[in-house]
Design brief:
Layout (H helix, E strand, L loop, with lengths): L8 H7 E3 L10 H4 L5 E6 L3 H9 L8 E4 L9 H16 L12 E4 L3 H6 L1 H6 L6 E4 L4 H13 L6 E6 L10 H14 L7 E3 L1 H6 L15 H14 L8 E2 L11 H16 L5 E3 L2 H9 L5 H12 L7 E3 L6 E3 L4 H14 L1 E2 L14
Parallel strand pairs: 2-3, 2-9, 3-4, 4-5, 5-6, 6-7, 7-8
Antiparallel strand pairs: 1-12, 10-11
């Protein structure tokens, strides 16, 4: 995969100081963990939709989550599993021959029992699957999923837990569950590629649904949950990116919704999140554009890393309007350099708008 590959080379040259680089499921984890960007969910029972999403890598490159959980009706599991097997068989038969590179493909399973039911599909098609997504995860489930994958000989398959259950929101129990999750992730750090949050599920517990007039950060339940997730899990000991919550508002032709969506992504980044789950192709381009690193951030990050062990601890930034403090900004600088490799570095004076609706 390579982001922004839909833009012609001349336009890329005019936008990027450093162009995005290619990556795949075998890329070094410290780089790969930042590559999930706009993560598109597709129901496993929709063959044509999955097929289109895979073939559309030339237009909208993105990781793909084939969902066997919430997107499947109560009696649709068998059809969904059969369809998943068909899709992966088609990959092995090179039905998707038009692609030079496959997207990162993840399977979102319902529970442990379902994981066991698809074990033959996973082992047979391991070369196409980057990882397993664990909905309503907790520390015990995470440990169990890793154990089952190990027993199947799938020790190269990543897992991504989703924090979205009442255990992590109810005040009387959340501290216990966050501590348990922290320990479990730490114990399986090499297998956890990312952490996701389920804001729709969390708000749904209280009968709340997003409104087009408000950013999710205007909601007290959401901000309380976000604060806990960042506080407990965005720790140096884990060093695993957390992806921001999804928005069901996808009509980016509505300028008000689009502006609010951009504002939310900017706040996601400011709170330490990397990337965002998306449910519609119109959201993909915006999420990925805002992940491109600005020239000023890149130069500051480069300066911080190069001078971290120097005798000087503080220096004026590239833009000349703030200070680079080498110790407190070092973690940010390392993350910025990884993002620069995946999403590229914009030229000085260029912003993310050049990557939205740009010439193909």
């Amino acid at each position: 995969m390579k982001y922004f590959n839909y833009i012609n080379e001349d336009k890329l040259d005019s936008i990027f100081y450093k162009k995005p680089q290619e990556f795949d499921k075998n890329t070094e984890k410290d780089i790969l963990k930042y590559s999930l960007g706009a993560f598109l969910y597709v129901p496993a029972n929709k063959y044509n939709q999955i097929y289109k999403s895979i073939l559309n890598q030339d237009k909208h490159p993105k990781p793909l989550a084939i969902c066997l959980e919430d997107a499947i009706g109560e009696f649709g599991e068998k059809e969904a599993i059969d369809n998943l097997e068909l899709v992966l068989d088609d990959l092995s038969k090179q039905v998707f021959y038009k692609l030079n590179k496959l997207p990162l493909i993840f399977i979102r399973v319902k529970d442990i029992d379902q994981l066991k039911r698809i074990k033959n599909i996973l082992t047979k098609n391991r070369q196409f699957i980057t990882g397993i997504i664990i909905p309503k995860a907790n520390g015990v489930l995470l440990k169990a999923f890793v154990g089952i994958l190990d027993d199947l000989g799938l020790k190269d398959m990543y897992v991504i837990p989703i924090i979205e259950s009442s255990d992590f929101i109810y005040k009387e129990v959340k501290e216990v569950y966050f501590r348990e999750m922290f320990t479990s992730i730490l114990n399986h750090k090499d297998r956890v590629l990312g952490i996701r949050i389920g804001l729709t599920d969390v708000l749904g517990m209280y009968g709340i649904r997003r409104k087009r007039e408000f950013c999710v950060y205007d909601n007290l339940i959401a901000t309380s949950f976000i604060e806990d997730v960042v506080n407990y899990l965005n720790r140096e000991e884990l060093d695993i990116p957390i992806s921001a919550g999804v928005s069901e508002l996808f009509n980016m032709d509505d300028e008000k919704i689009k502006r609010l969506y951009i504002r939310e992504i900017e706040l996601d980044k400011f709170h330490g999140f990397v990337g965002k789950t998306v449910i519609h192709p119109k959201q993909i381009e915006i999420v990925q554009a805002l992940l491109a690193v600005t020239y000023e951030d890149y130069m500051d990050a480069k300066d911080i890393i190069e001078n971290y062990h120097s005798e000087v601890g503080v220096k004026k930034s590239c833009g000349g309007d703030k200070m680079n403090e080498y110790k407190p900004h070092y973690k940010w600088a390392k993350k910025t350099m990884s993002l620069a490799y995946i999403y590229g570095v914009l030229k000085e004076g260029v912003d993310y708008n050049e990557l939205i609706e740009t010439e193909r």
